[in-house]
């Protein structure tokens, strides 16, 4: 069994997609459709930068999706790989859920681009710059990081945002509380604590205004049943019902990304290979969670052609 997974914020880089665009007409079509849907030359920003503009949440989110879906288009439309035959599940890390759902046919590409542009803007606007922060705690499991977050909160928001793998958990909340957590992390047993270069505190209760904005937008959006089930961030279980998917995408804005559990549960369900489309960030996490699962990362046309031959 195989699952296709899609990366989240942080996997953007200037130059992303440029070589793939030259090598694949299907990939080029994806970039052009996203630009048209957004009324923005996003692909030029992806190719040429500047980096500070690409890193803006409202640009990074649709850019990462566009890159992942360009890889997917090259694999399926030119490589002749069928999602339903090649994979039994899809999953995505945070915004990657939208990429996964687009690949599985729940959203069309223009709708996905517009939803992520809105999501990025809403998440950025939810909390004034400097009020919130995020930090990665390394060498600490979920139980320990929850204890550190609870100790650091002191009346402010400080909670687990991403349970990424057994050795990396991310916290989010008010900047003062995150600073306190970083200070006390080592004494409480974590190996390291690193402040993340993000512009907003994602996946915590401070994001409620963004969740409200997404509830309104998704309420107006048709969601089709995916071709294969999605392992949802907020439950770490498979979902295929469109109404449940809608609810969980809203909940995901303020909820914890249960990535470690999602990957472990996919492996327990019989998944033996996990393919990351459009990045090389999730693969190492997967190996730390399930060392026996084969991990394949698709970024270049050579990567795509190699998997095409393997599946064929």
Key words describing this protein structure:
15 helices, alpha/beta, Alpha-Beta Plaits, 312 residues, Malonyl-Coenzyme A Acyl Carrier Protein, domain 2, 4-stranded antiparallel beta sheet, 51% helix, globular, 6-stranded mixed beta sheet
The name of the CATH architecture of the largest domain is: 3-Layer(aba) Sandwich
**Structure classification:** alpha/beta
Q: What name does CATH use for the topology of the largest domain?
A: Malonyl-Coenzyme A Acyl Carrier Protein, domain 2
Element order: H for helix, E for strand: EHHHHHHEHHEHEEHEHEEHHEHEH
Helical percent range? 40-55%
CATH superfamily of the largest domain: Malonyl-Coenzyme A Acyl Carrier Protein, domain 2
Quick structural summary:
By secondary structure, this protein is of the alpha/beta class. The chain is built from 15 helices and ten strands.
Describe the model.
With 312 residues, this protein is α/β, with parallel strands linked by helices. The chain has two domains: 231 residues, Malonyl-Coenzyme A Acyl Carrier Protein, domain 2 (3-Layer(aba) Sandwich), CATH 3.40.366; 67 residues, Alpha-Beta Plaits. It contains 15 helices and ten strands. The strands form two sheets. Strands 8-7-2-1-9-10 form a six-stranded mixed beta sheet, sandwiched between helices. Strand 4 and strand 5 form a beta hairpin. Helix 2 crosses helix 8. The longest helix has 22 residues. The two termini are 15 Å apart. The model has no long low-confidence stretch (mean pLDDT 95).
Itemize the secondary structure elements and their pairings.
Blueprint: E1 2-6, H1 18-23, H2 25-38, H3 42-48, H4 51-54, H5 57-78, H6 83-86, E2 89-92, H7 96-103, H8 109-126, E3 132-138, H9 142-153, E4 158-165, E5 168-174, H10 175-185, E6 192-195, H11 208-219, E7 230-231, E8 238-239, H12 242-254, H13 259-268, E9 273-277, H14 282-289, E10 294-298, H15 301-311
Parallel strand pairs: 1-2, 1-9, 2-7, 9-10
Antiparallel strand pairs: 3-5, 3-6, 4-5, 7-8
Helix pairs in contact: 2-5, 2-8, 5-7, 5-8, 8-11, 9-10, 11-12
């Amino acid at each position: 069994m195989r699952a296709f997974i899609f990366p989240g914020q942080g996997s953007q880089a200037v130059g992303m997609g440029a070589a793939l665009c030259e090598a694949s007409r299907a990939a080029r079509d994806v970039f052009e459709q996203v630009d048209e849907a957004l009324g923005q030359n996003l692909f030029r920003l992806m190719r040429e930068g500047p980096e500070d503009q690409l890193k803006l949440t409202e640009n990074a989110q649709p850019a990462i999706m566009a890159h992942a879906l360009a890889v997917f288009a090259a694999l399926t439309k030119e490589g002749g790989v069928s999602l339903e035959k090649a994979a039994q599940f899809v999953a995505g890390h945070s915004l990657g859920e939208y990429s996964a759902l687009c690949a599985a046919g729940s959203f069309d590409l223009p709708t996905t681009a517009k939803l992520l542009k809105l999501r990025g803007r809403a998440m950025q606007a939810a909390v004034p710059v400097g009020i919130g922060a995020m930090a990665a705690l390394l060498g600490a499991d979920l139980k320990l990081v929850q204890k550190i977050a609870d100790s650091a909160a002191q009346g402010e928001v400080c909670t687990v945002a991403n349970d990424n793998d057994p050795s990396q958990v991310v916290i989010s909340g008010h900047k003062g509380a995150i600073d306190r957590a970083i200070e006390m992390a080592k004494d409480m047993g974590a190996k390291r604590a690193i402040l993340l270069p993000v512009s907003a505190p994602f996946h915590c209760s401070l994001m409620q205004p963004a969740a409200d904005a997404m509830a309104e937008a998704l309420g107006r959006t048709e969601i089709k049943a995916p071709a294969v089930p999605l392992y949802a961030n907020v439950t770490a279980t498979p979902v295929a019902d469109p109404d449940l998917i809608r609810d969980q995408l809203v909940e995901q804005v303020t909820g914890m990304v249960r990535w470690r559990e999602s990957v472990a549960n996919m492996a327990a369900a019989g998944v033996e290979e996990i393919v990351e489309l459009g990045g090389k960030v999730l693969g190492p996490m997967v190996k730390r969670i399930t060392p026996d699962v084969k991990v394949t990362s698709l970024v270049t046309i050579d990567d795509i052609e190699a998997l095409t031959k393997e599946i064929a």
